[in-house]
Write a structure and sequence with these properties.
The protein is mostly helical and 91 residues long. 67% of the residues lie in helices and 0% in strands. The chain has 5 helices and no strands. Helix 3 crosses helix 4. It binds zinc ion (ZN). Zinc ion (ZN) binds next to helix 2 and helix 4.
Length: 91
């Protein structure tokens, strides 16, 4: 029976992309731009942002709200991006 722990090896894997682990403040500062880019290009991704959103339900929900508003504002269909939100928000 193995225990799952946040070992230095796992942390290294998260940060190996060269982007720093984001705090909630960093995430909040970038989320507008992230949403805009994702709506413009459903394949757009930011490893640091998606890593934070996977691990932080509060920011994932904030982002889901923003995405919905931004999509309506822009008259864009958010459907292509929604499967990702589902993964993040399941928490
Ligand atoms: Zn957060």
């Amino acid at each position: 029976m193995t225990e799952r722990r946040l070992t230095p090896e796992i942390i290294r894997r998260f940060t190996v992309d060269g982007e720093p682990w984001l705090s909630c403040d960093d995430c909040f500062a970038r989320v507008d731009e992230y949403v805009d880019r994702m709506l413009a290009d459903p394949d757009y991704d930011s490893p640091a942002m998606s890593a934070h959103l996977r691990g932080c339900g509060a920011c994932a929900e904030e982002m889901a709200t923003l995405l919905d508003l931004a999509a309506r504002d822009a008259g864009v269909d958010p459907q292509p991006v929604l499967p990702r939100l589902g993964r993040w928000c399941q928490g």
